[in-house]
TrEMBL record, chain A:
Keyword annotations from UniProtKB, A to Z: Membrane, Transmembrane, Transmembrane helix
Organism: Candidatus Colwellbacteria bacterium CG10_big_fil_rev_8_21_14_0_10_42_22
Name of the protein in question: Uncharacterized protein
Transmembrane segments: 30-54, 74-96, 108-127
From TrEMBL, chain B:
Domain of life, per lineage: Bacteria
Residues annotated as domain RNA polymerase sigma factor 70 region 4 type: 122-172
Range of residues in the leader sequence: none
Organism: Candidatus Colwellbacteria bacterium CG10_big_fil_rev_8_21_14_0_10_42_22
Alphabetical list of CDD domains matching this protein: Sigma70_r4
Protein name per Swiss-Prot or TrEMBL: RNA polymerase sigma factor
Transmembrane segments: none
Family per similarity comment: Belongs to the sigma-70 factor family. ECF subfamily.
Keyword check for Zinc: no
């Protein structure tokens, strides 16, 4: 038996012609949500693998043996815009998955950690595919101008004290190096110069020198050699 | 007697009579929830009517594998929270830090009947002194007999956050009750 309240409500629905929303709208909304999540995951994974590719390509991975000064250069050289974008996409993912019970029933920290781990591992796996190397090749052949800025805007933090090049001459207390820009520069070795892997260098060897260049001379804070396997962008490439 | 889910199948075909059965079933519960949560609101019953209308409009989006009551309470929660936000009399934070970290101490446990009755009495007298974020889980737990998981589904917050809010809300209610009796 309906009460007056219920009758009034049903009457209102009839009188105002209130209609149920069709099922396809809910299905479409869910599809868009899932699509949004997938696109954001792909974007975040791509960004993480790109950050890793650019960092490696900039030679930042060669700097930790130089201690605090090396880490300082890493901080300067990291692609912060890309890191910010990947952080933003992780936050968007967090907001999107919060609509699902498996996520909102648990503390935010859990889903956030889950997303970060997923994106990091996804980014590492994505990096193994070799897509960035192929894209970089095509960018260098001017085939994809739209990606030029993405792949060519980043490089080693040269102005901040990162120098790399090929050893031309070995003197008693100095080295002559042809830098990656094609300039010749003299590197002064002092008693304070850090040589984390020793001082046995050979002419023709690629080296990294930490220290600011002034008037064609670097008073070296640290010097290390670069092996074939450590060379940024793989054995066939040089620093850029 | 037909289950809610069987009735919903009929409502989805356009059967308004079937919808009136659902309204009858849940009318008193939702009104009770509204009156306890929206203290001092003259239009609480109008808001409840709005809840049922929204349920009717969106019923084809109801997932048959879930409980209708949780779905309906979720609609009511949204409607009531929006009403509180519009009035701007009480704070409704956009984000609660309690939902970030787990709270292992906040486990659900069944109180003895006598303790539960006593707690309900205290809560009833102090509800108007509590913030919405504390008032709501207390109402759903003590007056609507929901589990922490059901409350989490209604409020879309972590289960452990439900636990910690109920715990804090009870402590606050007890303090307010002691103040009242001084």
């Amino acid at each position: 038996m309906s009460t007056e309240y219920t009758e009034e409500l049903i009457e209102k629905i009839k009188k105002e012609g209130i209609k149920m929303k069709p099922k396809f709208r809910f299905v479409l909304k869910m599809l868009l949500m899932v699509l949004g999540i997938l696109i954001t995951i792909l974007f975040a994974v791509y960004l993480v693998s790109l950050i890793s590719f650019i960092s490696k390509g900039s030679g930042l991975g060669l700097l930790p043996p130089f201690g605090l000064r090396g880490f300082g250069l890493i901080l300067i050289g990291l692609p912060w815009l890309l890191i910010g974008l990947s952080g933003a996409s992780i936050l968007i993912l967090q907001i999107l998955v919060k609509k699902f019970s498996f996520s909102y029933r648990e503390p935010v920290l859990y889903s956030l950690i889950g997303i970060i781990i997923f994106v990091l591992f996804g980014g590492m796996a994505f990096g193994k595919v070799g897509l960035h190397e192929r894209l970089l090749d095509r960018v260098e052949r001017e085939e994809i101008p739209i990606l030029r800025e993405v792949y060519r805007s980043y490089g080693p933090p040269i102005g901040a004290g990162f120098n790399a090049g090929t050893l031309l001459e070995i003197g008693e207390k100095d080295l002559l190096v042809e830098t990656i820009n094609g300039d010749e520069i003299r590197v002064q070795i002092t008693d304070d110069t850090h040589l984390p892997f020793g001082g046995d260098f050979e002419v023709g060897q690629e080296i990294v020198v930490v220290g600011k260049a002034e008037n064609g001379l670097i008073k070296a804070f640290g010097i290390r050699g670069v092996s074939e396997a450590e060379r940024p962008f793989g054995p066939k490439r040089r620093f850029r | 007697m037909k289950t809610d889910e069987e009735i919903i199948l009929l409502v989805k075909t356009g059967d308004l009579e079937a919808f009136s059965i659902l309204v009858e079933r849940y009318r008193e519960r939702i009104i009770r929830y509204a009156k306890k949560f929206l203290i001092g609101y003259d239009d609480a019953e109008d808001l409840v009517q709005e809840v049922f209308i929204k349920a009717y409009i969106n019923i084809k989006g109801f997932d048959d594998s879930r409980k209708f009551s949780s779905w309906l309470y979720r609609i009511a929660h949204n409607e009531f929270i929006n009403a509180i936000k519009k009035r701007k009399n009480e704070p409704v934070p956009f984000f609660d830090p309690d939902s970030i970290f787990p709270h292992p101490i906040a486990k659900e446990r069944a109180d003895a009947e006598i303790v539960r009755k006593e707690t309900k009495k205290i809560i009833e007298k102090t509800l108007d002194k509590l913030k919405p974020k504390y008032r709501e889980p207390l109402i759903l737990y003590y007056f609507e007999d929901m589990t922490y998981k059901q409350i989490a589904d209604v409020m879309r917050i972590p289960i452990s956050t439900v636990g910690i809010r109920i715990k804090r809300a009870k402590e606050k209610a007890k303090l307010e009750f002691e103040k009242l009796n001084k």
